[in-house]
Amino acid sequence: MGVAGEVQYQPYPGPQDQVQVQQVIVTGPAPRTNVILSWISCICCFPIGIVAVVKAHDADRRLMYRGDLDGARRSAEVAKYFAIAAFVVAGIIILGGTGFLIFLFGFLLPSIDPS
Predict the structure, then answer these.
(1) 67-109 pLDDT, tens per residue?
(2) Do 52 and 41 form a contact (C-beta atoms < 8 A)?
(3) Whether the predicted pLDDT of 64 surpasses 60
(4) Which of 53, 57, 56 is nearest to 41 (CA)?
(5) CA–CA separation, 107 vs 82, rounded Å?
(6) DSSP characters over 9-46
(7) How much is the pLDDT for 92?
(8) How remote is the C-alpha of 29 from its chain's centroid?
């Protein structure tokens, strides 16, 4: 203990946990992020297409900013599956609507007697 008014200095404790950063460089072709396919699917079927757009941009972010090629490939695959699902749903809606109109104008309306 020191005299009153005397300043005592304590040694600064060093960092308890030291963080080591390692950079992994992966070579090879960059994965396709399917951004254009996702935007086109968003035009066809908006609710499913918007999920495809979000996943495609997630793949783009992982590739460009983080360098996570495996994560980018996984997100791009999910984006491709959602884009395909959007195309399939849009095709079902179009075929169903066309079938309904053919049924309505081809069979129902001609059978109604206007007199």
Answers:
(1) 788 888 999 999 999 999 999 999 999 999 999 999 888 887 7
(2) yes
(3) yes
(4) 53
(5) 36
(6) --PPPPPSS----------SPPPP--HHHHHHHHHH-H
(7) 97
(8) 21
CB 44 within 8 Å of CB 52: no
> At 45, phi and psi to the nearest 5?
-140, 100
| Cβ-based neighbours of 59, under 8 Å, separated by 6 or more | 31, 33, 34, 71, 72, 73, 74, 75, 76, 79
d(CA 59, CA 79): 8
- Which residue is associated with the tokens 């900013």? 65
The per-residue pLDDT of the chain, averaged, comes to 82
Taking residue 63's Cβ as centre, other Cβ atoms within 10 Å add up to 20
Q: How far apart are CA 96 and CA 45, in angstroms?
A: 14
How far is it, in rounded angstroms, from Cα 111 to Cα 83? 41
Q: 33 with 59: CB under 8 angstroms?
A: yes
Answer whether 41's CB lies under 8 Å from 49's CB: yes
CA distance 103 to 5: 99
